[in-house]
Amino acid sequence: MICPGCSVKAPGFKINNLAKADVDMVADIHIEQVRSLLKTLTVKLYKMNSDELEKSPGATIDSRIASIFQCPPLQNFSELSNKQGTEAILLGFEPEFTGDRVFAVMYGLYTMIISSYSGKCSLYMIDFLDQQNLYNSARNIEIFVWRINNRYQADGQLFLATNQCDGPVKNLSFERIFGKLIALQDTMALVVSNRTGRLITKVVHTAASMTFFPIGF
Fold first, then answer.
1. CA 149, 208, 31, 36: dihedral to nearest 10 degrees?
2. Helix (H/G/I), strand (E/B), else coil: 49
């Protein structure tokens, strides 16, 4: 029986109300959103740092994106000394590195995040995900953001240029992308934690003084 004028309160949403297949779909959506944001970030970095692309004769932005965002990721790039994850990111900020720094940091960032999803690009059993790995990946993105904005070469130039703060209009589009990436990883960590009942060990860190957090699967 319908009661005119009566208000009906919708039940509160709870992660635990989702079927396993639904939660797996949430994870797949998160992974796809992360890949999309990382591709956008790669394009923007190459446009801001076009000299990096020139270090690889014949390479184009599209070919670099195709190499980075394979699923599962390609491995053993000799130009990166076969490094991946946070080791590849660190390589991109080494003064002695003469290769494509955009390729190094973006391949490193992508493989680090994919590792937080147990090395998979599509999920069927979310229970295999580790909430701590997802949480740690979000903190690693924060550390990466600090490095890219604060690591300088001997000539005083940033290793990689991002936001332009000179002039009357500030371009902070990079910060918005980084913020979305961090939010996606933190949200997925909470989804897994709520679904499995496993707690997240939160950390207080200063990006300037902390090393990258480990991610394993």
1. 0
2. coil
Query: Residue 141's closest CA among 48, 70, 205?
Result: 205
The pLDDT tens digits for 18-70 are: 445 566 778 888 899 999 999 999 999 999 999 999 999 999 999 999 999 99
Long-range contacts (CB closer than 8 Å, 24 or more residues apart) made by 54-62: 55/98, 55/99, 55/100, 56/99, 56/100, 56/103, 59/100
Q: Are 68 and 107 in contact (CB under 8 A)?
A: yes
Burial 179-204 (b: 16+ CB within 10 A, else e): ebbbebbbebbebbbebbeeebeeee
Q: What are phi and psi of 154, to 5 degrees?
A: -60, -30
DSSP state of 82: T
153-194 pLDDT, tens digit each = 999 999 999 876 555 445 678 999 999 999 999 999 999 898
CA separation for the pair 100, 80 (Å, rounded): 9
pTM: 0.85
d(CA 118, CA 169): 41
